[in-house]
Amino acid sequence: MARETFSIRFQCREQKKNVAGLSPIEMVIIINGERTLIKLPMKAEPEEFRKGTKEITEYLLEQRKRVDRCLTLMLKDDVELTASNLKSYLKNNTGSPKTYTIGILFDEYLSLLKKRLGRDLTKDTYNRYEKTTVMFMEHNVLTASFPAKDVTLEHFKIYQASLNERLDPATSCNYLQKIKTIFKYAFETGKIPSNPAFGLKIDKGVKNEILYLTDEELKKIENHQFGKRLQEIADVFLFSCYTGLSFADIATLEEGDFKTHESGYTYVEKTRQKTGVKFLAILLGNSDRILKKYNYRLPIKSNQRTNEYLKEIKDICGIEKPLHFHMARHTAASLLINHRPAIPNETIERIMGWTDERQLKHYAGIFNQTVFDDVQRAFGNQTNEISW
Questions:
Q1: Are residues 81 and 123 in the same domain?
Q2: How many domains does the chain have?
Q3: 110: which of 12, 15, 79, 135 is 20 to 30 A away, CA to CA?
Q4: What pLDDT shows up at residue 158?
Q5: Alpha carbon 340 to its chain's center
Q6: DSSP assignment of 160-186
Q7: Do 27 and 50 fall within a single domain?
Q8: 31 and 177 co-located in one domain
Q9: Largest alpha-carbon pair distance within the chain?
Q10: What is the pTM of this model?
Q11: Are 294 and 235 contacting, i.e. CB atoms less than 8 angstroms apart?
């Protein structure tokens, strides 16, 4: 009796690249010398395919599982094992779930995100992904059993309108972008035939002025004696104002992260949770005192709870601006930018963990004091006559 042979491999050929630089991923099956090629829905850059990125690897694993399901069914149906018969089973989606629902899609994508928690994804970001899947179904009156392929652009527009009625433009945009990402994943991995969010325009609205605290406003928080609950929040907020560290980055700090330079400054050198960019934060102001107060373990609450308590702090201190935690990072940026040229742009970018000059220019453009300082540096104080 002749020995049966079976092999399966995947390829992504350079010569089949489209104008976007993507090539279809192909599955090559050889059974007893008979070869068949199946073009898969997912496209990729050939170089990325050769590297074997996590997304591509997981997609290929799923395709292999799909082949295994078909082989089991062929055996059950007493169908001869040939390459052409297997291709027919795969083409007819035999061995795959009969309906790929939005419930399956959302569970699948969230499970992928869970694997990234603590590495390049924060718990808060994961929660927003989870929340947007729930809200998307609620606002469209859909259940988890609704077929993912039947979701249309109209569903996204209904969701967008509902979000815009309830939330500010930035928050609405955040939730909408996340649900859009999930359906883009479903399309690119071949789970649905088209991307229902294609062509959706996400209006971020008019960019609000970046708000930051002045020295006087900072002193109001520094000098006020709060109860334990609010004092802990105030201290963590002030620590961020002095260092420029984001909420997510502060939440990951451990005692061993704090080092002392020969100049006497305490500093932290890590990678930002949000962007993966390296930063070197110097502990300025009273940040060192706050650290020692809590024995290098800052009292971190949830982001939502922290922002709720900051509203109380704002009212107690008589601060007119809306107070939220990210304003601390704006405040740190204002402190650094308004000390140029003593602190060069490159140094500011490294401290803040910014990826390029565009972020610095964005901040610098809204700090009036920077303009006055630059003019004063060039021409001195105002006089009746300026000599050019």
A1: no
A2: 3
A3: 12
A4: 93
A5: 31
A6: HHHHHHHS-HHHHHHHHHHHHHHHHHH
A7: yes
A8: no
A9: 107
A10: 0.52
A11: yes
Same domain, 250 and 326: yes
Give residues with Cβ within 8 angstroms of 188, minimum separation 6: 42, 43
If you write DSSP's letter for every residue of 104-130 in order, what string do you get?
A: HHHHHHHHHHHTTBTTTB-HHHHHHHH
Q: Are residues 139 and 262 in the same domain?
A: no
Which residue in 373, 367, 275 sits closest to 330, CA to CA?
367
Residue 384 resides in a domain: no
129 strand-pairing partners: none
The first and second tokens of residue 44, run together, are 């990729």
CB-count burial class (<10 Å; 0-12, 13-18, 19+) for 1: exposed
- Per residue in 172-186, pLDDT tens? 898 999 999 999 998
Reference 300, options 266, 252, 257, 332; nearest CA is: 252
Tens of pLDDT, residue by residue over 281-300, are 888 778 888 988 998 888 98
- What does the pLDDT look like over 56-96, one tens digit per residue? 888 888 888 888 888 888 887 777 888 888 887 777 655 54
Say if residue 240 is in the same domain as residue 150. no
152 & 76 share domain = no
Is the predicted pLDDT of residue 259 greater than 90, yes or no? no
Residue with tokens 């940026």: 333
